[in-house]
Amino acid sequence: MIAFFKTIIYIPLYNVLILILNVSWIDAGIATVILTVLVKLILYPISKKSTITQARMKEKEGELALIKEKYKDKQEQAVKTMEFYKVNNINPFSSILTVLIQIPIIFSLYYIFFRSGLPSIDTTLLYSFIKAPASVSMNFLGLIDVSQKSIILALLAAVTSFWQMHLASPTEKNTGQTGGKEDFSKIMAKQMKYTMPIIVFFISWKISAIVALYWFVSNLVGIAQDVYTRKQMAKTSLATK
Question: In the beta sheet, which residues pair with residue 144?
């Protein structure tokens, strides 16, 4: 892990996790849920922009297809497409920027649970005002030992991953396109929607239940945020008509 990101992201998040664990009734599973939700809420203003862009591009998918059909020259097509984005107030790069901003935070959060070492505490990472808890319970709600594997949580992580990708994927429309690149990109997106959840299942099952729990909660909050943003957009759209 790059030292810079470790100092400004990983260590602060680790300290927040340990601070949460200092509450006597909170186990490692509950702490994972709280920390994951907190981070997702902090990142919501950023992810909201990405959701809005995706929704707008979905709405304009047919018009974009017509531009590609009308202008065969790649350079002219690119110019007309960018003009279309500008007129419709769409920033096609916002999703990329959102991902780039979130990657170090999400990776650090994942790394915390992947290499947390819980119930042991790495006191060398703690700030002077953060105390290590006397003990850490690894039994989530007294039901699941999150230090061990859990096929149930792994399945939940996989199902919510599929659900989230399904919400973000473009709607199936017959736009009359037959371009090889267009078809290939759609095929790849569809394949990822089905293969990624399988990858998530095996990774979260093979490592430990705490990683599966993190993935499940992160997906669930992401889905809730996505649905909420789209509903707010729909209300705004109706109000302006």
Answer: 140
- Alpha-carbon torsion (128, 134, 136, 142), positive or negative: negative
Closest C-alpha among 28, 25, 239 to residue 147:
28
**Is residue 31 a contact partner of residue 17, using CB atoms and an 8 Å limit?**
yes
CB 68, CB 176: distance < 8 Å:
no
DSSP for 45-68 reads: HHHHHHHHHHHHHHHTHHHHHHHH
The C-alpha angle 177, 180, 185, rounded to 5 degrees, equals 90
State CA 166 to chain mean position distance. Answer: 13
Q: What is the 3 state secondary structure string of 130-183? A: CCCCCCCCCEECCCEECCCCCHHHHHHHHHHHHHHHHHHCCCCCCCCCCCHHHH
Across the chain, which has 241 residues, the per-10-residue mean pLDDT values are 77 92 92 92 84 76 79 80 80 68 74 78 90 90 87 92 78 48 58 82 84 90 89 75 59
Assigned token pair, 132: 């290590």
Type of residue at 43? L
**192 to each of 1, 23, 100, 129, how far by Cα in Å?**
27, 40, 20, 44
Residue 96 region by backbone torsions, left for phi larger than 0, else alpha for psi between -120 and 50, else beta:
alpha
Query: What is the distance between the alpha carbons of residues 215 and 212, in angstroms, rounded to a whole number?
Result: 5
